[in-house]
Design a protein that fits this description.
The complex is a heterodimer of chains A (293) and B (135).
Chain A: H1 3-12, E1 14-21, E2 35-40, H2 46-56, E3 72-75, E4 78-79, E5 83-84, H3 100-108, E6 127-132, E7 141-142, H4 161-165, H5 169-180, H6 184-200, E8 206-211, E9 218-223, H7 235-242, E10 256-260, E11 263-264, H8 271-278, E12 284-291
Parallel strand pairs in A: 1-6, 5-7, 8-12
Antiparallel strand pairs in A: 1-2, 3-4, 3-6, 8-9, 10-11, 10-12
Chain B: H1 22-29, H2 33-43, E1 49-56, E2 67-71, H3 76-87, E3 96-99, H4 111-118, E4 123-129
Parallel strand pairs in B: 1-4
Antiparallel strand pairs in B: 1-2, 3-4
The chains are: A alpha/beta (293), B alpha+beta (135).
Protein name (chain B): Ubiquitin-like protein ATG12
Pfam families (chain B): APG12
Function (chain B): Ubiquitin-like protein involved in cytoplasm to vacuole transport (Cvt), autophagy vesicles formation, mitophagy, and nucleophagy.
Chain lengths: 293, 135
């Protein structure tokens, strides 16, 4: 497959979700049915919150309390981390959210190489989420008061900031709309520009986030594209330097296997080839891990 | 360098870690022993100390000492709480923290990550303001 076909495959990846209203939030207790929605892996939950909220609105006890701004989703009583609630979800801030695909891979701890037939019920799709309003998890989903909307602030990322900040107003609006409407062509049209400027200029580093399974630890570090002897940096060499405990070898996944977009990735994949295909809209390569049983 | 003061850990003792889901935690129990041990180690790396530097913006008061050492394992919230105590401002007073004049990190962000990604030289520069900036 060529780059575009691979990008499209990544873009089209989605998680079927079954969303229930928490019975304590419902005027009919558990009599309200679930809402089914397919969430793109590359997208962000707040973009779909209004749609989900609309479905459940007639069943809410008090919509002045259970308003859209107070809405969040949780899986197994853990809030799906968005950093910002819907109200503050703005174009310039989407890099502060965790993408749907990362949340799913991390929170379910699902091993992509296990086929659904072997899986226990609780791990099978659709992904069962609960919509809640009370006791907003302020520490995990940050809410910003309205006076504090530092637009144009968020893209301070190594190697990326310049290209992104260099986008014209209409380009950054387009990028935002492409995410909102999940439009592949519009998104890659602009993203290609960000990438090419990054790649064409002196490429300093890839932004990589690695999630340590079953723990809250996230490692975020710029990774140079080449290692000392001018060999291209691979998934294996990067993980070996970031997490030697789990990746004692640069070539073989001994204890743990890297997962990107729900797929186990070969340790020998060069980042310089992987990144332009598998990067998320926030400019990061998010890597979750499947532990070897 | 040894006379740089340190930011104490867990000033308020609050645990900001996102809880782990049941599905993810049952994985642990089914792992072989070497995998479990490696995961434990990976979850709790030996923290190192890094330097952060506070810079006042606008009308915010200056600090007597603006450079501090902090353990990489700390959360950004500790930095905010520490700065509040140094400035002697109450919990109701607003205080805004930015990295490199550009963005406000999440309170549960790991200081080590921020330092790795956004340091200037060997220092992580934190700008603070009593009013929101860049808005």
């Amino acid at each position: 497959m060529d780059t575009v076909a691979l990008r499209r495959a990544v873009w089209n990846g989605s998680i079927p979700c079954r969303i229930e209203l928490d019975p304590s939030e419902s005027r009919v207790f558990d009599a309200v049915g679930p809402y089914f929605i397919s969430l793109p892996r590359m997208s962000y939950i707040p973009l779909y919150m209004a749609e989900i909220y609309r479905f459940f609105t007639p069943f809410l006890i008090d919509t002045s309390v259970s308003c859209l701004e107070n809405a969040w989703l949780e899986f197994e009583t853990v809030p799906l981390k968005c950093l910002l609630s819907f109200a503050e979800f703005m174009p310039v801030r989407y890099d502060r959210h965790w993408p749907v695909g990362v949340l799913y891979d991390l929170f379910t701890g699902r091993d992509p190489t296990v086929t659904s037939a072997d899986e226990e019920d609780e791990h099978s799709l659709p992904w069962k989420l609960v919509l809640r309003f009370q006791n907003f998890p302020i520490k995990h989903i940050m809410r910003i008061d309205s006076g504090n909307t530092f637009q144009g602030a968020a893209f301070a990322r190594n190697g990326h900031a310049k290209a992104v900040l260099g986008l014209s107003k209409s380009e950054s609006n387009k990028l935002w709309e492409a995410l909102q409407f999940h439009n592949f062509d519009h998104f890659w049209n602009i993203n290609e520009k960000i990438l090419s400027e990054t790649v064409a200029g002196p490429l300093r580093s890839f932004s990589v986030r690695v999630y340590v399974p079953s723990t809250p630890r996230v490692i975020q570090q710029p990774i140079p594209p080449y290692v000392d002897n001018n060999e291209p940096q691979t998934v294996g060499t990067a993980l070996n330097s970031l997490l030697p405990e789990l990746f004692p070898s640069k070539r073989t996944p001994v204890l743990s296997r890297p997962v990107i977009h729900g797929v186990v990735i070969s340790m020998s994949t060069p980042l310089i080839e992987l990144f332009p295909i598998a990067m998320y809209p926030d400019g990061f390569l998010h890597i979750t891990l499947a532990m070897s049983g | 360098m040894t006379d740089i003061p340190r930011i104490p850990e867990d000033i308020e003792g609050g645990n900001l870690d996102l809880p782990v889901t049941l599905s993810a935690s049952v994985l642990l129990t089914s792992l072989p022993r070497d995998g479990q041990r490696a995961l434990q180690k990976a979850a709790h790396p030996t923290p190192t100390k890094v330097t952060i530097k506070f810079k006042a913006m606008g009308s915010a008061p200056m600090l007597n000492k603006d450079t501090y050492k902090i353990k990489t394992s700390q959360r950004f919230e500790n930095v905010a709480v520490f700065l509040r105590s140094q400035l002697g401002i109450g919990p109701a007073d607003s205080l805004f923290l930015y990295i490199n004049f550009t963005f406000a990190p999440a309170l549960d962000e790991n200081v080590g990550n921020l330092w790795n990604c956004f340091k200037t030289g060997e220092e992580l520069i934190i700008n603070y303001s009593m009013q929101s900036a860049f808005g």
